Amino acid sequence: MRFLHTADWHIGKKLHGYDLLTEQRDAYEQIKAIALAQKVDAVVIAGDLYDRALPSEDAVSTLDAMLVDLNRRQHLPLLAISGNHDSAVRLGQGREWFESTDFYLNTTVAEGVKPVVLGDTQFFLLPYFEPFSVRQYFQDEQIKTVAEAMVRLVTAMQANFDPDKKHVLVAHFFAAGSQHSDSETLVQVGGLNAVPVDLLAPFDYVALGHLHRKEALQNEPVIKYSGSPLKFSTSEAADTKGVWIVDTDKTPVKVTFEPLKPLNDLVVLTDSFERLMDPEVAYPVTSDDFIAVNLTDTTPIANVMQRLKTRFPRIIELQRVNQLDVTPEKLNIEEVQRDPLTLLSDFFEQVADHPLTTQQAGWAKTTLQQAMKEEK
Amino acid sequence: MRFLHTADWHIGKKLHGYDLLTEQRDAYEQIKAIALAQKVDAVVIAGDLYDRALPSEDAVSTLDAMLVDLNRRQHLPLLAISGNHDSAVRLGQGREWFESTDFYLNTTVAEGVKPVVLGDTQFFLLPYFEPFSVRQYFQDEQIKTVAEAMVRLVTAMQANFDPDKKHVLVAHFFAAGSQHSDSETLVQVGGLNAVPVDLLAPFDYVALGHLHRKEALQNEPVIKYSGSPLKFSTSEAADTKGVWIVDTDKTPVKVTFEPLKPLNDLVVLTDSFERLMDPEVAYPVTSDDFIAVNLTDTTPIANVMQRLKTRFPRIIELQRVNQLDVTPEKLNIEEVQRDPLTLLSDFFEQVADHPLTTQQAGWAKTTLQQAMKEEK
């Protein structure tokens, strides 16, 4: 069979305050078009359908419309799991009715070890889980980590393997060796929560969600993150987003990447303020693109964000890339302990490239004296 | 056909802080038992399935389990609408799949004017609505009130009437003439929001939700509120809760009431503190019942709530029924304008049945002088 692998839709997510529903609907339409053009037999969504356990009504109606469209209108079988961003209970509302039209949505570990069979393939749809729920499921207090849990779960799944079928795992966790991107929180990936990829060897294909970059497991031919359909952080700005098309009738399975074209891109611009504001300088961005600015200037600029917004209305980040390095190891203790006025004068000279004028020095002195008086 | 009419489950509702899920599950089991014993062909739930637009996960999983049980396990067709307490969007998640097993859940006005046909009956499942949504639906700016909206909606429904079928309206609003109970807010019932019962004449039966007392429309033989399955306020303490069983093969339809037995009842006890605390006095209540106390005493009682709780752990209300009447019209202006010490002495004598002692009068004087000084 042939299926499409996507994940981490995060419907309802906002990017630095900007609503992404328009971009998410556009990405959905592209995914649907790929699914139809590629004549896939099923669509796999590997968790984090919503961005929040308590999605807004807009997010609920948007995702519902997408799932209704794919499954009820286009008659595409759906295979989905809850991710760590979803509320398993809320997402699972109605799941017992979904199976009547081959929409399989698993939200518990118990559901995950029983395969869903479509064509030549057994799908194990394992939702995001915490070790305690696997501990409960196996009644085994020894299970402390996600990796220990997966050892038991894979064994339980293997007991249900039909040797005449291909075996696909759909899961939502951090597989060891992954390079994570900023849009996943550090504390949630890696460490005790990682699953070594060796554990996943029994499967013909592993369709993962959780990390937002498909590059996270570059060296694994059949263990793949699809990544998110949209860029959710500047660390993903250079990425090409997309979905995997997986053919299970080959051994090993055949995996091809189908890119998505962002409706409004996330672009990092590194330049000086003068050039950024210069109408003569053309940047390959639209006024709806999300812009992260790396400012190369070293001098202070008044109202910098406000002024940049007149040219780039959807700025999401502003960083100074030529900042003075003031990390502790670079500081000379003697210099730091000098009197405030000397420190201020030195600092001013460093960023402004000329010393304080006599008048400025006078203002600085008066202000510092005033500040010290108030401190007492 | 024969159907069961219930409404206003309010799953997740708390009664003065007490979780009602246990009582709600018990009421559900009784409703199911009645449906099975009466061999009904369908169950109608006329809105307010949840108590809140954003129900807790516990509430979601509780209601979901009930609906799965009724429809998927017991194979009972379900006919339901969203009420004013439900979020139409959230409740409606998955509704497009539900119809495959005869579970019809309407959340929009457009859905309400198209009948669902089961056996000899056309059901019009009209969710709770605001006039603006009907204004939008008919593209008619003249529609300002719920009554005006209903005129148009009933006409639209009648255009879809099959003369060979019975016609049942399932709706969630305040029908004029109803006596409301305290558990519905005054501002939401009556006035511009009322629907005159005359408008409902075209239907063989109207299954209403919104008001919590089945007594709300006593004189209407075929326009009925089922009321809530549980007592949600002390004004309902004397009510018998239950469901209607409706047989559509008679003209007029046959309507019979099936009572529910409260697992833990809501009881009003009117008595003196001394008797209420007296272990010799037996009240027909259990320690899990919800108790509203009407205290007949006129004298002050220290820690009255705390002490009553030792005998009645789930007190939900405490009222003094022999309070002095201090409503404005009973007050003598001259009396009110007397000096604070005289007022205090008079008040003390009224509630304590004896005047202040000399020592008490001294304390009162000192305290009042102190208070007046602080006021300046």
Automatic annotation (TrEMBL), chains A, B:
Alphabetized GO MF terms: exonuclease activity
Domain Nuclease SbcCD subunit D C-terminal residue range list: 263-351
Location of the Calcineurin-like phosphoesterase domain: 1-213
InterPro entries: Calcineurin-like_PHP, DNA_Repair-Maintenance_Comp, Metallo-depent_PP-like, Mre11_N, SbcD, SbcD_C
Domain of life, per lineage: Bacteria
UniProt entry tagged with the keyword Nuclease: yes
Sorted UniProt keywords: DNA recombination, DNA replication, Endonuclease, Exonuclease, Hydrolase, Nuclease
Entries under SUPFAM superfamilies matching the protein: Metallo-dependent phosphatases
Gene3D superfamilies: 3.60.21.10
NCBIfam families: sbcd (TIGR00619)
Its biological purpose: SbcCD cleaves DNA hairpin structures. These structures can inhibit DNA replication and are intermediates in certain DNA recombination reactions. The complex acts as a 3'->5' double strand exonuclease that can open hairpins. It also has a 5' single-strand endonuclease activity.
Family: Belongs to the SbcD family.
Subunit composition and interactions: Heterodimer of SbcC and SbcD.
The protein, known as: Nuclease SbcCD subunit D
UniProt lineage: Bacteria, Bacillati, Bacillota, Bacilli, Lactobacillales
Encoding gene (name): sbcD
